[in-house]
Amino acid sequence: MFFHITLERNMQLHPRHFGRNLKENLVTKLMKDVEGTCSGRHGFVVAITGIENVGKGLIRDGTGFVTFPVKYQCVVFRPFKGQILEAVVTMVNKMGFFAEAGPVQIFVSNHLIPDDMEFQSGDMPNYTTSDGSVKIQKDSEVRLKLIGTRVDATEIFCIGTIKDDFLGVINDPTTS
Amino acid sequence: MAEKGGKLLPKGTKSSLTSSHSSLGSSKRKENCPTKSKKGRKVQFDSSIGSTKSADKTESMFDKVNLGKGGKEDKTGNAAKKTPVKDPQPLELKIEQELPECAKCMMDAEALHILQGIQDQMVILSEDPSIKIPISFDRGLQYAKSTGNHYTDYQSVRSILEKLKKDGVNEGELCVIANACPETADEVFALVPSLKAKRSKLIEPLKGVLSELVKLKQSS
Question: Which pTM value belongs to this model?
Answer without folding.
Answer: 0.70
